[in-house]
Design a protein that fits this description.
CATH topology of the largest domain in chain A: Uridine Diphospho-n-acetylenolpyruvylglucosamine Reductase, domain 3
Low-confidence stretches of chain A: none
Strand content of chain A: 25-35%
Radius of gyration of chain A: 19 Å
Largest interface: A-B, 30 and 31 residues
Number of domains of chain B: 2
Number of helices of chain B: 5
Strand order of the largest sheet of chain A: 4-5-10-6-7
Low-confidence stretches of chain B: none
CATH architecture of the largest domain in chain B: Roll
Distance between the termini of chain A: 49 Å
Number of domains of chain A: 3
Helix content of chain A: 25-40%
Order of helices and strands of chain B: EEHEEEHHHH
Helix content of chain B: 25-40%
Number of strands of chain A: 14
Structural class of chain A: alpha+beta
Distance between the termini of chain B: 41 Å
Largest sheet of chain B: 5 strands, mixed
Radius of gyration of chain B: 16 Å
Mean pLDDT of chain A: 97
CATH class of the largest domain in chain A: Alpha Beta
Number of helices of chain A: 12
Mean pLDDT of chain B: 95
Structural class of chain B: alpha+beta
Order of helices and strands of chain A: EHEHEEEHHHHHHEEHEEEEEEEHHH
Strand order of the largest sheet of chain B: 2-1-5-3-4
CATH architecture of the largest domain in chain A: 2-Layer Sandwich
Oligomer: heterodimer
Shape of chain B: globular
Chain lengths: 286, 163
């Protein structure tokens, strides 16, 4: 299948990309790694006028240390995120979840920023972003602004980014001493999208769970922060009974889809099972 | 039209291409390198896998213009000096192919896997090749082939012969 005719621009700076986008108008589409966009174009599900390829902007790649946070460039590829020492040390949940994205070939092209801006509810990384309280740094004609993850994902494939804005980098507060993490994903075949996924990070202290972060993949049109699960864990003994009880709250506030991957009630049940598994692995219980 | 230049199997190629041209179509239709098959067109099957600057990618999911300046290796460029790559030989010796359609992608994905992990377990091979589908379901011999090649490549590396 052949994508529709389209113009192409490959700016070498963010400023140039922003001005190309502004000129092109709202039918322009930003091309990051292309691992979702190119399949969409081949299936003729979109007809953009111009692709603005961010692949030539070196400054959008890489991870840096900013004290209390790490900053991941939007064009950092999944394969580089997985191997990055700063990510592994300070955002282990991101490394764990990214390692489950699609397959090695896709991870060599697909990017962190692209996955977030695409905002597919079945994608693994939006749930991680909300669980880690990430902040999206976007640049548009009006300059730069920061959008908390909790306000970034608006609806199915919809984000708070304006059409003229580019997601430049993502700031992730460090979770260091005592924190451990796990991403539990259920899919029906190799490389398939998650039917449901659970991103969990916990901080153990003196036999109790001092803090917990839980995000759910594909349990709504946007990633879900499982606050009920987190509240049920905080300050409780780090044991199997605590985890089992907390996991029962996983469906709260969720609005899971019914599709070929599973019906809503099945997903709600699956979320409790996977939350229990994710927390057990993250907290080294059982 | 956009000007692109890239190395394909060691040969410098310069062309004017439409932005929408997929790398897979560029390789097959413009360069005649039909050793790279297209199996699914949905980024699932991995048959069209090539190496882009040494890393496996699905060439149906890369635009030719995105590969500007890159070095591409297809299955047709893998053998050196008339000698098959150890993975090519291992797939032959271990019946790692049935219809053969997935084989170029399997072999190139395995090249990438062994670059990152020279001594993978069976499970690591199965996970490492999860981006490649064999519609004949000949996975047992594919895994056997990759293990055999990995062993040979490790032995030749330690003996100082070849890579």
């Amino acid at each position: 299948m052949i994508p529709p005719r389209v113009e192409y621009a490959a700016p070498d700076s963010v400023a140039e990309a922003v001005s190309v986008l502004a000129e092109a108008g709202e039918d322009a589409k930003v091309l990051a790694g292309g691992q979702s966009l190119l399949p969409v174009l081949r299936l003729r599900m979109a007809y953009p006028s111009v692709l603005v390829d961010l692949g030539r902007i070196d400054g959008l790649r890489g991870v840096r240390d900013e004290g209390a946070s790490i900053v991941v460039g939007g064009m950092t590829r999944h394969s580089d995120v997985i191997d990055d020492p700063l990510v592994r040390r300070h955002a282990a949940l991101l490394a764990a979840a990214t390692a489950t994205v699609a397959d090695p070939q896709v991870r060599h092209r697909g990017t962190f920023g692209g996955a977030l801006a695409h905002a597919d509810p079945a994608g693994d990384l939006p749930a991680v972003a909300v669980a880690l309280d990430a902040e999206m740094v976007a640049e548009g004609p009006g300059g730069r602004r920061t959008i908390p993850a909790s306000e970034f994902f608006l609806d199915y494939l919809q984000t708070a980014l304006d059409p003229g804005e580019i997601l430049c980098e993502v700031r992730i507060p460090k979770l260091d001493d005592g924190w451990s993490a796990h991403y539990e994903k259920f899919s029906r075949t190799a490389q398939a999208w998650a039917v449901v996924g659970v991103a969990a990070a916990v901080r153990r202290s003196n036999g109790t769970i001092a803090e917990a972060r839980v995000g759910l993949t594909n349990m709504s049109t946007t990633p879900v922060r499982a606050r009920g699960v987190e509240a049920a864990l905080t300050g409780k003994p780090a044991d199997a009974a605590t985890v089992a009880e907390a996991a029962m709250h996983a469906g709260e506030g969720a609005n899971p889809p019914s599709d070929l991957g599973g019906q809503a009630d099945y997903r709600s049940h699956l979320a409790t099972v996977l939350t229990r598994r994710a927390l057990s692995r993250a907290a080294h219980i059982g | 039209m956009v000007a692109v230049t890239m190395m394909v199997d060691g040969v410098a190629c310069s062309d004017e291409v439409e932005p929408r041209l997929l790398l897979a179509h560029y390789l097959r239709d413009r360069l005649g390198r039909v050793g790279t098959p297209i199996g699914c067109d949905t980024t699932n099957c991995g048959a069209c896998t090539v190496l882009l600057d040494g890393e496996s990618v699905k060439s149906c999911s890369v635009l030719a213009v995105q590969a500007h300046g890159a070095a591409i290796t297809t299955i047709q460029g893998l053998a050196g000096d008339g000698a098959w790559h150890p993975l090519q030989r291992a797939f032959h010796d271990n019946h790692g192919l049935q219809c053969g359609y997935c084989t170029p992608g399997m072999i190139l994905a395995a090249v990438d896997l062994l670059r990152r992990n020279p001594d993978p377990t069976e499970e690591e091979i199965r996970i490492g090749l999860e981006g490649n589908l064999c519609r004949c379901t000949g996975y047992v011999n594919i895994v056997r082939s990759v293990r055999a090649a990995a062993l040979e490549m490790r032995e030749s590396a330690t003996s100082g012969v070849g890579r």
